[in-house]
């Protein structure tokens, strides 16, 4: 591979890390705030698929892309609220409820989204980052660095969440409920109320990731749109040690892994293309194996998740 081809691959992977990693970023931030409150939401896969369908449908029907983004967030919050309410019932297991919500969200999306498979909807605009950072670069390199308009919002959200969880009263309540529900109750905090609110907020944030899928990349609605990104986000949050800023870097890492195959194909490296497409899933397995040590996997974990019992 020549130096020029290597640079092209590097730029393509960088642009792809942002493009592919944006849904990972929003879903992982949503799961991060949910788990900080002591609840696991495996239903985020269903939230992601349903919000992608709802966002695409709203954008198609209204002709306004931001209405699609808003609808995606609200629909994600609605599904997550249902999960939060169900998990607040006595003797309901978070994992089992999450699997049920995942099936419900996906089923509703597939059923309601049948008429949306063929139409085209207004898309989320791009920010021409390549034209700003490398104005001398060729058209292909510059276009590879066009980024999703939602990505800067995700970066800002990660910063706000990191600061808020560490420095605000609501952040203290969320962390306290996640670390010791008994202590939170002793101080008069509604444990169920905080967890339902955190789960709903996490669903709204994850819904923005669904909008990124259907309204930016790949920019259409179909039943195989998510490819398990909602489930991968759970492993990503563990990898990020339940810290929002680390979720940002982890999302870019997963995004870069997902963009490696297309980047190599763009310079003529076609051997093992489908193997490269499996890199994000291999990376997920590697992270799970790496964190299987109790000392590693428990570092930073909210104690009410049950992983310390």
Task: Please supply descriptive tags for the structure shown above.
309 residues, ABC transporter involved in vitamin B12 uptake, BtuC, single chain, mainly alpha, 72% helix, 15 helices, 2 strands, two-stranded antiparallel ribbon
How would a crystallographer describe the biggest sheet?
2 strands, antiparallel
Tally of separate helices: 15
CATH topology: ABC transporter involved in vitamin B12 uptake, BtuC
List how many beta strands DSSP finds.
2
Poorly predicted runs are none
Helix content: over 70%
What is the overall shape? globular
* Gyration radius, rounded: 20 Å
- The CATH architecture is Orthogonal Bundle
Count of domains: 1
Please list the strands of the largest sheet in the order they lie side by side: 1-2
How confident overall, as mean pLDDT?
Answer: 85
Question: Separation of termini?
Answer: 51 Å
CATH class: Mainly Alpha
Overall SS class: mainly alpha
* β-sheet strand percentage: under 5%
């Amino acid at each position: 591979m020549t130096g020029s081809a290597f640079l092209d691959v590097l730029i393509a992977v960088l642009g792809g890390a942002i493009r592919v990693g944006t849904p990972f970023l929003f879903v992982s931030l949503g799961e991060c705030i949910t788990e900080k409150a002591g609840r696991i939401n495996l239903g985020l896969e269903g939230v992601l698929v349903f919000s992608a369908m709802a966002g695409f449908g709203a954008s198609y029907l209204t002709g306004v892309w931001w209405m699609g983004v808003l609808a995606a967030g609200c629909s994600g919050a609605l599904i997550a609220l249902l999960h939060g309410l169900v998990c607040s019932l006595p003797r309901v297991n978070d994992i089992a409820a999450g699997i049920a919500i995942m099936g419900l969200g996906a089923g509703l999306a597939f059923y309601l989204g049948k008429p949306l498979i063929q139409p085209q909807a207004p898309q989320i605009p791009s920010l021409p980052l390549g034209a700003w950072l490398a104005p001398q670069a060729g058209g292909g390199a510059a276009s590879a660095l066009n980024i999703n308009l939602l990505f800067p919002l995700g970066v800002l959200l990660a910063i706000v969440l990191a600061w808020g969880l560490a420095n605000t009263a609501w952040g203290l309540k969320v962390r306290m409920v996640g670390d010791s529900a008994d202590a939170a109750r002793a101080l008069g905090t509604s444990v169920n109320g905080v967890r339902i609110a955190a789960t709903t907020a996490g669903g709204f944030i994850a819904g923005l990731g669904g909008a990124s899928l259907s309204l930016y990349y790949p920019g259409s609605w179909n039943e195989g749109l998510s490819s398990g990104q909602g489930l991968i986000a759970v492993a990503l949050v563990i990898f990020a040690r339940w810290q929002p800023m680390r979720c940002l870097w982890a999302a870019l890492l997963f995004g870069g892994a997902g963009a490696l195959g297309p980047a190599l194909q763009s310079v003529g490296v076609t051997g093992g293309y489908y193997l490269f497409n499996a890199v994000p899933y291999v990376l997920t397995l590697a992270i799970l194996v790496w964190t299987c040590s109790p000392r590693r996997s428990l570092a930073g974990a909210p104690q009410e998740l049950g992983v310390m019992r």
